[in-house]
Amino acid sequence: MSVLQLLLYVVFQTVLLAWSATGHLAVRTDLTHVDSARGLTKHNLLRRMAARTQARVSKRWSPPRSRPGGSATVTAAASRDEDNPNSEYLMHLGVGTPHPQRVSLALDTSSDLIWTQCACAVCFDQTSPALDTSTSGTQRGVSCFDPVCAHGGLPFSGCTLKDNLCFYAYSYPDNSVTTGKIYEDTFTFQAPGDEVAAMSVPSLRFGCGMYNKGTFESGIAGFGRGPMSLPSQLKVSRFSHCFTTIGDSRTSPVFLGTAPDNLEVQATGPIQSTPFAPSPDGPNSSLYYLSLNGITVGNRRLPFDASTFAVKGDGSGGTTIDSGTAITTVPSAVFQALRDEFLRQVPLPALDVSIDDTEVLCFSTTTSSSKQKLPAMPKLIFHLEGADWDLPEKNYVLHFDEDFNSGLCVVVSSSGDSDVTIIGNFQQQNIHMEYDLETNRLGFVPARCDKL
Questions:
Q1: Which residues face 66 on adjacent strands?
Q2: Is the dihedral of CA 133, 212, 45, 40 positive or negative?
Q3: In sequence order, what E strands does 272-423 have?
Q4: Rounded Cα gap, residues 28 and 18, in angstroms
Q5: What's the Rg (C-alpha) of the chain?
Q6: How far apart are alpha carbons 103 and 138 in whole angstroms?
Q7: % of the chain with per-residue pLDDT over 70
Q8: Are 66-235 and 269-429 the same fold in CATH?
Q9: Which of these, 117, 39, 132, 431, lies nearest to 269 by C-alpha position?
Q10: Rounded Cα distance, 267 and 314, in Å
């Protein structure tokens, strides 16, 4: 046995002993952003984010609204741009033994099912080979008589006639769909290229998509509250992520069942928390709702109270936090008021820009002298229950300097016909976000994510 093999064996055994001694599983792995290291201009980066956001919001949250717990229409509408897949942050893991096959799944805090394309009859294009379950020595098809098939959180499931295995159908509002069988296998979590940090977890259940339509990387890792989600299957009481700056080459850590041991050292601001709000879909809702009481721009609080951001009697509206939506969206009236306040407080020429049907407020800085310091941008504060989230400027302002034009854009958009508010991942950059499922709270703190 080589020194490296011995080291790997010791590390793996240590992880197993720690798991069995505490009775809790602790997994750390890394994510990459879909636009990471693509060399995109800031304008193209914003265009791609806007397109993905518009597709997700207009298809998922626009009326009529279908609740995740009551139908097969859940989340993650796909963009029509084949070069802009319906993914934000990708989790890289291995499935099967003895040689795990790599899959890249979109981390989605607004859905439950874990699924990937298998040796399918109808497939969407993906850059890596589809999963081949026949090469794994630990794979097992889940029986249609298993409880998960009857009441395990699957919107639609049944029994195959040939082998009595559980099959599922999961559809999305833009007519994307995955249909296949439920399998069980060993998942290996690791940072890309980091064999020492690898950790294997047996008997996780996932959708083996055999008939698939849509624009995805290879599938989705659901992080919602339902029984089929990854946190639920791992039986962890909390998970967290810390997204590094969008567009650069650094990976982003995600923690399941544990917290980074150096968070206090790498924190760059105060630790705050806010309770999750009740969901109209019940305790196993795919969505994480928050109580947003208001928004402040610079020196003025917008004239909207908590009722504007709360769930309505018919189940519409509400405020959610979502890893799978790029840009924060607010109801149309709120966006207009926010826009007017930035126009009033920012002494720069305005550029009203519509990017792929998404209205974005931008300002020109082209005429500013290179020696002249740009004016400070007004603060943007989300007033949550028990916490005021004072966003760093880089989490809502995107500067660009292209083709002899320079400017900046406020990265907040309108939710159009919907009255939903969604806190997107652009606003979550370089903030450690912890979902405490035991105390039912969201914790957040600005941090150097690449150091955790």
A1: none
A2: positive
A3: 272-277, 289-290, 292-297, 300-301, 319-321, 328-330, 350-355, 358-364, 380-384, 387-390, 397-402, 405-410, 412-414, 421-423
A4: 14
A5: 22
A6: 17
A7: 82
A8: yes
A9: 431
A10: 40
pLDDT digits (tens, 9 = 90+) for 307-345: 999 999 888 899 999 998 999 999 999 999 999 999 999
DSSP secondary structure string, 62-83? Answer: SSSP--TTTSSB-S-PPPS-TT
311 DSSP assignment: B
Structure tokens at 430: 């370089």
Residue extents of the structural domains in the chain: 66-235, 269-429
Annotated active-site positions, please? 108, 322
Pick the CATH number of 269-429 from 3.40.50.2300, 2.60.120.560, 2.40.260.10, 2.40.70.10: 2.40.70.10
CB 62 within 8 A of CB 55: no
State pTM to two decimals: 0.88
What are the pLDDT digits (tens) for 373-411? 888 899 999 999 999 999 999 999 999 877 667 889 999
- The token duo for 379 is 């603060």
Taking Cα atoms as reference points, which of 67, 62, 230 lies closest to residue 155? 67
Residue 171 to residues 105, 107, 212, 404, Cα–Cα distance (Å):
17, 18, 10, 45
- CATH entry, 66-235, from 3.40.50.2300, 3.30.460.10, 2.40.70.10, 3.40.640.10: 2.40.70.10
- Confidence at residue 19, expressed as pLDDT on a 0 to 100 scale: 45
For tokens 């806010």, the residue is 274
Closest CA to 297 of 327, 341, 242: 341
Task: Give the length of the chain.
Answer: 452
| Partner residues linked to 431 by β-bridges | 446
How does pLDDT run across 249-293, given as a tens digit for each residue?
899 999 999 999 999 999 999 999 999 999 888 776 788 999 999
Chain-centroid distance of CA 325 in Å reads 7
Q: How confident is the model at residue 70 (pLDDT cuts 50, 70, 90)?
A: very low
